[in-house]
């Protein structure tokens, strides 16, 4: 959905300024504009949201992140996303991929035949690793190796703050 924030704010501010000038009102302009700003932001959130989404970032939105974009950094802020590595070949992936989840939720689907070194960092959050263990505070390094290769094909660094991340094969 499209954000209506700037439209609501500019129309209401222009209307206020015209009425103030036409009726010669003695009202503090700065206070009213700040109030209109906050009301416009609230209405925009209720009507259509102010989310942002591109190939590697989701902010105040939800969806799937495109893994084939060769991005090294993925960010989820106040949102929800799915990162599906299962259809991507190992040659296309970078050797180190970072996922940051802040006040959000992420689901990561790893390739079935890949050995992945997972470096998970959590603070006030839930990071669920493929073996079923859960990390709430601190950091942990885990090798998800379903084929028994012994060496990681790529490294996945996961930082989760006030959110949840679930990793599965």
Spatial strand arrangement across the major sheet: 1-2-4-6-12-8-11
Strands, count: 13
- Rounded radius of gyration (Å): 22 Å
Q: State the shape.
A: elongated
Could you describe the largest sheet, including whether it forms a barrel? Answer: 7 strands, mixed
Please give a structural write-up:
By secondary structure, this protein is α/β, with parallel strands linked by helices. The chain folds into 2 domains: 5-47, no CATH class; 52-168, no CATH class. The chain is built from 2 helices and 13 strands; from the N terminus they run H-H-E-E-E-E-E-E-E-E-E-E-E-E-E. The strands form 2 sheets. The chain has a 7-stranded mixed sheet, with no helix packed on it. It has a 6-stranded mixed sheet with strand order 3-5-7-13-9-10, with no helix packed on it. The longest helix is centred in the N-terminal third of the chain and has 19 residues, at 5-23. The model has no long low-confidence stretch (mean pLDDT 87).
């Amino acid at each position: 959905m499209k954000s209506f924030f700037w439209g609501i704010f500019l129309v209401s501010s222009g209307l206020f300024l015209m009425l103030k000038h036409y009726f010669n009102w003695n009202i503090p302009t700065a206070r009213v504009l700040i109030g209109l700003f906050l009301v416009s932001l609230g209405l925009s959130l209720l009507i259509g949201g102010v989310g942002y989404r591109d190939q590697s970032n989701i902010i105040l939105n939800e969806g799937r992140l495109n893994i084939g974009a060769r991005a090294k950094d993925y960010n989820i802020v106040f949102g929800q996303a799915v990162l599906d590595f299962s259809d991507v070949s190992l040659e296309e992936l970078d050797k180190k991929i970072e996922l940051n989840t802040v006040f959000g939720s992420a689901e990561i689907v790893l390739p079935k035949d890949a050995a992945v070194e997972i470096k998970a960092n959590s603070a006030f959050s839930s990071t669920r690793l493929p073996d079923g263990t859960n990390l709430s505070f601190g950091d942990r390094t885990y090798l998800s190796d379903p084929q028994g290769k012994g060496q990681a094909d790529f490294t996945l660094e996961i930082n989760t703050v006030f959110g949840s991340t679930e990793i599965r094969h």
